[in-house]
Design goal:
The protein is an alpha+beta fold. It folds into 3 domains: 1-46; 47-171, Immunoglobulin-like (Sandwich), CATH 2.60.40; 175-204. It contains 3 helices and 11 strands; from the N terminus they run H-E-E-E-E-E-E-E-E-E-E-E-H-H. It has helices spanning 2-45, 173-203, 205-212; strands at 48-53, 56-60, 64-73, 79-88, 92-100, 105-110, 114-117, 123-131, 135-146, 151-162, 168-169. The strands form 2 sheets. Strands 1-2-3-4-8-6 form a 6-stranded antiparallel sheet. Strands 7-5-9-10-11 form a 5-stranded antiparallel sheet, with no helix packed on it. Strand 3 and strand 4 (79-88) form a beta hairpin.
């Protein structure tokens, strides 16, 4: 009787070991399949980043081609303008455009957040930003097509460096030209004021002289 009981326990132990190994193999295979699926999904939405010049970058996936360009900084307002060219590869009634910046950058102006887009047409939007603190930051533009079953997106980023004077580095040619224009306008304003005062004084010299001459 005891021998039969021992044989029964051995039989149960063998069955339990076989079942445990089978579950482990199945779990490992499931994990491998899941990882492969996730890799394919990531590969489907991965963009190809290309640098066109110092201030322009382009990225493309199966949903959108995006080109982001820094158009320079205004010496009058201190704002940095970015231009985003969007070429959708699918038609969307609601395409969302998001500018993602850190708290050290203020978004002062942007185009409509949602707008319809037609497949293979190119759309231009702008965003204006003000640097609030010295440092190196990322400005990201994200474009999302809202569909009835799912959403399709692409994004592109640019690195901007703010000096201790809150100037975007490297300083663009347009900034230098606008700065020269700013000083020229200031000079013309001062010169014009001096000329205006001169002619007013000349025209009203005797009146002014009489006004300053004490009565006898």
């Amino acid at each position: 009787m005891i021998n039969r009981f021992k044989k029964f326990l051995q039989f149960v132990l063998v069955i339990w070991l076989i079942a445990t190994n089978s579950c482990s193999v199945f779990a490992a295979e499931s994990k491998t399949d899941s990882k492969s699926t996730n890799s394919l999904t990531i590969q489907d939405i991965t963009s190809n980043l290309k640098t066109i010049d110092e201030f322009t970058h382009q990225t493309e996936n199966e949903y959108f081609t995006l080109q982001l360009s820094q158009k320079g900084q205004s010496p009058f307002t201190g704002e940095v303008t970015y231009e985003l060219l969007i070429t959708p590869h699918l038609t969307s009634k609601d395409t969302q455009i998001l500018w993602i910046v850190p708290s050290t950058i203020e978004i002062t102006s942007q185009n409509n957040i949602f707008q319809p887009m037609q497949e293979e047409y190119t759309y231009k939007v702008q965003g204006k930003f003000k640097l609030l603190k010295e440092g190196t930051y990322q400005i990201t533009a994200q474009v999302v097509s809202w569909q009835h079953d799912t959403n399709y997106a692409n994004s592109i980023s640019d690195t901007i460096i703010a000096s201790d004077e809150l100037l975007a580095q490297p300083v663009s040619t347009s900034y230098k030209l606008q700065l020269a224009l700013k000083y020229a306008l200031i000079f013309l304003g001062i010169a014009g004021s001096v000329v205006l005062v001169y002619f007013l004084v000349k025209k009203n010299f005797w009146k002014i002289k009489d006004w300053f001459t004490p009565p006898y």
